[in-house]
Structures are given as structure tokens and as C-alpha cells.
Amino acid sequence: MNFAAAESSGSSSLLPLLLLVGLFALMYFMVIRPQSQRRKQMQQMQQSIQAGTKVITIGGLYGTVVSIDDDSVTLEVAPGITNRFARGAIGKVLPDDEVADATPVNDEADEALDGDAATAPETPSTGNGRGAADTR
What we know:
Strand order of the largest sheet: 4-3-2-1-5
CATH topology of the largest domain: SH3 type barrels
Mean pLDDT: 77
Distance between the termini: 104 Å
Largest sheet: 5 strands, antiparallel
Shape: rod-shaped
Helix content: 40-55%
Number of helices: 3
């Protein structure tokens, strides 16, 4: 009779251990493993960058890779303007079709602004930097 009581108390102490192992396995497959896979993909992408590649940095700056060092990348962000970034700052390599979509040209908005500026009445200035209304 005592043997049965001792056996039942032993199995109840095994349940929390199994729950702890199950929780760790769940965390591994839901959090740790996907994150390490994303990190490996990011490192592989950053190592495969070549001159002429269109990229976006983790800060949101679009540019074209001009030169690559061991740990830095020089990007041309505008014609004749280059910036140097750490290789880890490259967030994404852009396909050619996405680069065209990233720089939209809106001539109608520019024309509307130019037209409004031409028809707006000019305010006389007193030269004191305060405008015409304030003549202190």
C-alpha cells in the first residue's frame, strides 16, 4: 500500500518538468529559430552586395552601391553625392522594377504649386523681417 502512494507522488513531480521542457521547445520553434534564420539571410544578403546594386538602408535611404570595403559600403544617394555606411546598415536589396516605383514623379503637383505661387498676391515687406502687418 505504501508502494502505491510513493509511486503516485513521483509522477506528479514529473509533470512540471515536462511542462518546462515543452515551453522551452515551443519558444525555440516560435522565436529563436526563425530569428536566427532571418539573421543568416540578412548577413548573406549583405555579403552578396556588389557595385551597381540598388539598396535601401535600415534608416530608409535609397541609393546605389558605388564601392564596397570589408565592413563599409559607399552609396550614391543622388547624382554626385555619396555616403558611406556600415555594411550592416543595408536593409534590403531592391529589384530594378521596385527602384522605378520608389521615385515617383508628380509633375501635376509641381505645376499646381507653381500656378498658385504666380496668382498669389504679394505682401509688401517693410524690410524688418516681421512682415507688413507688424510695424513696431
